[in-house]
Input
Amino acid sequence: MKIEHDIHVHTHLSSCSSDPKATVENYLKLAKDRGLKLIGFANHFWDSNVPGASEWYKPQNFDHIMKIKDEIPQDTLGVKILIGCETEYCGNGKVGITKEVADQLDFVLIPISHLHMEGFVRDESITSPKDVAKLMVNRFKEVLELDLATGIAHPFMPLGFINVDEILSHISDDEFRECFSRAAELGVSIELNAGCFPGNHGKETDLFHDESIIRPFILAKECGCLFHFASDAHSLDHMKSLFTMERTINILGLTEEDILPLCRV
Ligand SMILES: [Zn+2]
Ligand SMILES: [Zn+2]
Output
């Protein structure tokens, strides 16, 4: 199966993108060159209607992310564009988007594991591998029930932690199956994020091997989940990492039918 979409692309509008070349026009050119038929822009977002944004999120509101519309050229080079967002989930039902705003976007990605955002997404007291694992499982289940997510961004990738093997070892196959069966039932897409598979980049470490992060995706496929691809590019060049996912597609044995219908062009 060829990779023909990427629905997790940040432009210069995201505060953590420092690449002035990360524009719609440049991404479209790259997409066309590499055979992509669809790009979904998913800048970081917190809805001003929801209280309790962090200082980092506050400026990244709806008006801000929708500035992207002014950048879309008349001729999109035959590449379909979707305008979505990557919002935030802080636990206890606190999510950075309202239903009204979600309905105005083409798609909504919700992460469960921006655990590097200490004091906002993760309480400082949660540091042990077992507690981190439990947090991700609970948040995954909670996000599904919000009825807001098109897809879960980089599921079970504990950002900010390097001991990924150990953290994921605390989640049993049955726990993963419980999570993914519900996602399949609700049609919430599981993200295949190019940054989450170190083996594809020759970047496995003693504490993080591909097989740890591949296990949940094998189980997700068994449970009948739908998937989408994501470069999570924050710079123009970074989008090319998407194509390292061909290795993961082969490992998982993915076909067109496994792809979220929104992403099939
Ligand atoms: Zn993210
Ligand atoms: Zn992202």
Q: What stands out?
A: The chain has a mean pLDDT of 98. Residues 5-263 form a domain with the TIM Barrel fold (CATH 3.20.20.140). Residues 114 and 189 are 18 Å apart (CA to CA). The radius of gyration is 17 Å.
